[in-house]
Structures are given as C-alpha cells and as structure tokens.
C-alpha cells in the first residue's frame, strides 16, 4: 500500500484495541491493510461475533451510508493497520466512480445472506429447544400423574 497514503489517512491499532465501539458517531469507514478485526456486540449479556474482517476488507461503512451511530464494536484480534476514509472522501469517490456502488451492494448482499442463514439456524435451534421443553413438560406431567395414582392407592 502507498506509504504516502498511510501517512495521510493511516491509523495503527494494537491487538485488543477498538477501532470503534457501538454508539460512536460514524464519520469514516476503514480499509484494513494489515491485521484482523472482530465485529461484535453484546446480546443477552454475552458477546456475539457478527463477523471477522482482514486485509483488503472494509469495516464501518454502514454508519457513513445511513448516518447513524455505530451498531457494533470493531475489536482488533491482531496488530492492525487501516486507512480511515471519511464520509466526504467516500461520497466524492462514489460520484466519480459510480461502478463501485454495485460492488458495495454486492458486498451488502453477501453479508445479508450470511445473516439470514445465521438467523434461520438460530430459529431452528429455538424450535428444537421448544420441542424438547414441550416433551419434558409432558413427561413431567405423566410422572406426576403416576405418582399421584400410586400415593392414593
């Protein structure tokens, strides 16, 4: 990667540091040039990894597209270098290179399909657990009924 570009808009993070955290204002996205980042958030008190990204991948783009706060944490799993691309630079680039929009939409489509698959898997797990609970409740009721019969005789 161009060293002048890194001098101008490059940032370095140590393993364990956060590039951004949930709720932060999102005025830039980040192109990872080196390292690995975990995108995660808490759900029910437990950390859930939504995705991982490495060199050549972009993170944080949702906030500069929809102008909303960060919806997840970006946690460095290794020493990581990024290029910080402001929303102004991003918007200007899109205007000058409209073909990039299809690449971005394709990336969003892939991510949405992955999230849909995870949601379906979670729903299937919930349904299996519900069926097991129903079966356990039925078995418990049958056992209680048998105990009551044996106690009354």
Please render the helix and strand layout as text.
Layout: H1 3-9, E1 10-13, E2 18-20, E3 28-34, E4 36-43, E5 46-54, E6 58-59, H2 61-66, E7 73-76, E8 80-86, H3 87-96, H4 100-152
CATH homologous superfamily grouping of the largest domain: Jelly Rolls
- Estimated structural class: alpha+beta
CATH class bucket of the largest domain: Mainly Beta
With helices defined by DSSP (H or I, 4 residues minimum), what is the helix count?
A: 4
As for the CATH topology of the largest domain, it is: Jelly Rolls
**Gap between N and C termini, in Å?**
85 Å
Main sheet record:
4 strands, antiparallel
Radius of gyration: 24 Å
Domains, number? 2
Explain the overall architecture.
The protein is an alpha+beta fold and 153 residues long. It has 2 domains: 3-96, Jelly Rolls, CATH 2.60.120; 98-153. Helices cover 50% and strands 29% of the residues. It is built from 4 helices and 8 strands. It has helices at 3-9, 61-66, 87-96, 100-152; strands at residues 10-13, 18-20, 28-34, 36-43, 46-54, 58-59, 73-76, 80-86. The strands form 2 sheets. A 4-stranded antiparallel sheet has the order 1-8-3-6. Strands 2-7-4-5 form a 4-stranded antiparallel sheet, with no helix packed on it. Strand 4 and strand 5 (46-54) form a beta hairpin. It starts with a helix and ends with a helix. The mean pLDDT is 88.
Summarize this, please?
The protein is α+β, with helices and mostly antiparallel strands. The chain has helices spanning 3-9, 61-66, 87-96, 100-152, and strands spanning 10-13, 18-20, 28-34, 36-43, 46-54, 58-59, 73-76, 80-86. It folds into two domains: 3-96, Jelly Rolls (Sandwich); 98-153.
């Amino acid at each position: 990667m161009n060293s002048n570009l890194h001098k101008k808009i490059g940032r370095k993070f140590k393993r364990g540091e956060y590039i951004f955290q949930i709720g932060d204002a999102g005025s830039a996205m980040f192109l990872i040039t080196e390292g690995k980042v975990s995108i995660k958030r808490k759900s029910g008190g437990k950390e859930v990894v939504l995705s991982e990204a490495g060199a050549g991948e972009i993170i944080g783009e949702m906030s500069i597209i929809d102008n909303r706060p960060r919806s997840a944490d970006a946690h460095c799993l290794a020493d990581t270098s990024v290029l910080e691309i402001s929303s102004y630079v991003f918007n200007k680039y899109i205007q000058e290179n409209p073909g990039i929009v299809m690449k971005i939409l394709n990336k969003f489509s892939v991510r949405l399909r992955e999230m849909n698959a995870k949601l379906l898997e979670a729903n299937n797990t919930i349904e299996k657990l519900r069926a097991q609970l129903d079966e356990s409740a039925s078995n418990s009721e049958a056992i209680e009924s048998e105990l009551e019969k044996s106690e009354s005789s």
